[in-house]
Amino acid sequence: MSDARPIGVFDSGIGGLTVLRALRACLPHENFLYLGDTARLPYGTKSAETVTSYALQAARLLVRWGGVKMVVIACNTASSVALGPLAQGLAPVPLIGVVEPGARAGVSATRNGHIAVIATEGTVRGGAYVRAIHGIAPEMTVSQTACTLFVALAEEGWIDGPIMEHAAQRYLAPLFSESTAGAPRPDTLVLGCTHFPVLAPVLANVLGPQVRLVDSAQTTADAVVGELRQRGLLVAGATSGRVNFMVTDSPERFVRVGPVFFGAPISPDAVETIDL
Fold first, then answer.
1. d(C-alpha 6, C-alpha 221), whole Å
2. Cα–Cα distance for residue pair 17/257, rounded to 1 Å
3. Are 220 and 96 in contact, with CB atoms under 8 Å apart?
4. CA–CA gap between residue 140 and residue 129 (Å, rounded)
5. N or C: at which end does the chain have fewer Cβ atoms within 10 angstroms?
């Protein structure tokens, strides 16, 4: 049986397009509805209560207006603080966040048991990755730091060059210059914000080949495929699915900067401005 209802994906802005990109690659026949809450970004500097309220509004709109069969939280901050309330508020619609898949990928990637995490202030403050990683492998050492400026640089499309490289060196040096409590230096870096995958080339250049970079987008996509298959919700057929976008502000900017994250042009006709 085939279920052609769209998969809903939401983020505070355009960073979640990296997750949508991975989802499209794994599920080319599925329809997607993406919501970027561009009027209220960034989520990473806001309180947990505010982020939870915003996330509930976004997810409920996807279910109510978009008729989606699943919701993917393509935002680490929202996944870290609002997953429980969202799961309760959206039931029985299945829900998947990006933190748990990213944590599992980090545990799988490390060779020495020390994982570094870079994320927004809200994700780091809430300790979601530390809890998720220790829930899978309690013996792991986890170091983390907030890289707030990375979000702004990515949103501006400044994903390479001397400014980005200098910011990367300033943020990463404290994480990788010294051992922590007798543990070896981290050998794995989890990109704990969906904006960060587009910065991966610069981060890899700064850190060198001895550090593995983990992007939760692909592992999140794998989790979505598994959940859809288990629930019998996959689209059957050979036709390509469609993607529609909604934003809460600045559709022109979304069309201009979004392709850096999405990996493909975004037609202005496919973007609708809505009010949450």
1. 15
2. 11
3. yes
4. 12
5. N
Q: Is 174 helix (H, G, I), strand (E, B) or coil?
A: helix
E strands in the chain = 7-11, 32-36, 70-73, 95-96, 114-119, 141-146, 188-192, 212-215, 243-247, 271-273
Distances 171 to 46, 167, 168, 192, 217 between C-alpha atoms, Å:
21, 6, 5, 14, 22
Active-site annotation holds for 75: yes
Which of 33, 41, 68, 75 is labelled catalytic?
Answer: 75
Pick from 201, 32, 10, 190: nearest CA to 96: 10
Q: What is the mean pLDDT of each run of 10 residues along the chain (276 residues)?
A: 88 95 95 96 90 96 94 95 93 96 96 96 92 97 94 87 95 82 86 94 96 92 94 85 96 94 96 94
Domains of the chain: 7-97+218-273 (3.40.50.1860), 99-216 (3.40.50.1860)
Residue tagged active-site, from 62, 193, 198, 246: 193
193 is catalytic: yes
User: Hey, how many other C-beta atoms are within 10 angstroms of the C-beta on 176?
Assistant: 19
